[in-house]
Design goal:
The protein is of the alpha+beta class. It folds into 4 domains: about 60 residues, no CATH class; about 80 residues, no CATH class; about 110 residues, no CATH class; about 80 residues, Nucleic acid-binding proteins (OB fold (Dihydrolipoamide Acetyltransferase, E2P)), CATH 2.40.50.140. A hairpin with a 6-residue loop joins strand 2 and strand 3. The N and C termini lie far apart (about 60 Å).
Length: about 375
């Protein structure tokens, strides 16, 4: 039995793959088949934002048989420092203890009685005798029309890039919460805007860059609010669009009812936020206006007072060390600093602070000006 954690898309591909293998096996007269079952599970995201949907897939099977012979395993010879060793891949349903590794012989075939450079051999048994047969000789051994339709569970992996490596699918509630946070913080961005809300949501959910982690930290307070709002947003918007004659709203209704968000559904679902705002008359949360300007000149010592929007622990310059990324919104502009100072580990998003530091450079982030400070000290 083999068990993997798959994304819904991977599971669907696996179902199709197994069906094709079983069909091919039956067409060639083999008994034995794969059986695939799956259980949908929801897990917390590793990056801490929302929940994702996976499928716990279990693959079982019976050994493929033909004309009284059962396929036990495919054997690949591998040259190692210790000499020739063997990769053994058993057929579905085969007890691995039936394969005696000590009896394996490099390049040998019991059918033709010759030993030569063979990349792969197969083990077959009639219930009494176990034969090692070359991959080419298996055609003569069983007949040219009865080539094995499948040998091992690796056959299932072929064709869709490995198992467990696809992009996870987020729950509807997760996407609603993050889209709500993005709109609250940056305003609504359509597909054709400079910063589409869809892209902000994608960076938060799936981004692995340093700036994506910074964005998650910046939006964290709004995401918490979005998680509380998500059920009401979903219910309100769904009640409005469920019987809509508009094509876009009909698609939105489908995704709102979905078990998880399909790959092509994130942009549509993000639009639930402006639809909700229109229905209930809400507005973007009012925040203190921040001037889009740099503060001071390079090398100048400045003192600023404002609210922390990002407080995130990141890797330091030395191996195994850490620093704190702190972003502060002030009436004069946005300030950013990386520091290992003790005070930076005691503050969090939303705290009001006064900091003195030296202007290192003038930077930009998401088209907003930021002043980078070094040697920051908290007043």
């Amino acid at each position: 039995m083999n068990t993997w954690t798959l994304t819904p898309a991977e599971y669907a591909a696996t179902v199709a793959k197994v069906a094709a293998i079983n069909k091919r096996a039956a067409k060639r007269g083999f008994t034995g088949r794969f059986e695939l079952s799956g259980t949908t599970v929801t897990r917390k995201a590793e990056n801490g934002v929302g929940e994702y949907v996976f499928v716990e897939a279990t693959l079982t099977g019976e050994p493929p048989c033909y004309d009284g012979w059962t396929f036990l395993a495919a054997i690949d010879a591998v040259a190692t420092d210790a000499g020739t060793e063997f990769l053994v891949r058993c057929a579905p349903g085969v007890d691995e203890s039936l394969v005696d590794r000590s009896a394996l012989r490099e390049g040998a075939c019991d059918h033709c009685g010759t030993k030569r450079n063979r990349r792969r051999v197969m083990l077959v048994t009639d219930g009494t005798t176990v034969n090692q047969v070359g991959a080419t000789c298996i055609k003569d051994f069983l007949g040219w029309s009865t080539l094995p339709a499948f040998i091992d569970t690796e056959s299932v992996r072929d064709g869709f890039g490995g198992l467990g490596g696809g992009t996870p699918s987020a729950t509807v509630e997760t996407v609603i919460a993050v889209a709500y946070a993005a709109v609250q913080r940056f305003g609504w961005g359509s597909t054709y805007s400079k910063t589409p809300t869809r892209m902000v949501v994608s960076d938060v959910l799936f981004g692995s860059r340093k700036k994506d982690a910074e964005l998650r930290a910046e939006l964290a307070p709004f995401i918490e609010q979005g998680e509380r709002m998500a059920p009401a947003i979903t219910e309100t918007v769904l009640a409005h669009v469920v019987e809509s004659g508009d094509s876009f709203e009909a698609n939105l209704a489908v995704i709102l009812r979905a078990e998880y968000v399909p790959d092509n559904g994130y942009g549509i679902l993000c639009a639930a936020i402006p639809v909700y705002d229109r229905l209930v008359g809400t507005k973007k949360a009012e925040t203190e206006p921040v001037v889009d300007a740099w503060i001071g000149t390079k090398g100048e010592k400045v003192t600023v007072t404002g609210r922390i929007t990002t407080a995130l622990t990141v890797d330091g310059y030395a191996y195994g060390s850490t620093q704190r990324l702190v972003v502060i919104e002030t009436p004069a502009g946005v300030v950013k600093t990386y520091t290992a100072a003790a005070w930076a580990y005691d503050v969090d998003s939303g705290d009001e602070v006064t900091v003195t530091g030296v202007v290192k450079e003038h930077d930009t982030y998401r088209d907003r000006k930021q002043t980078v400070l070094v040697r920051p000290k908290r007043a």
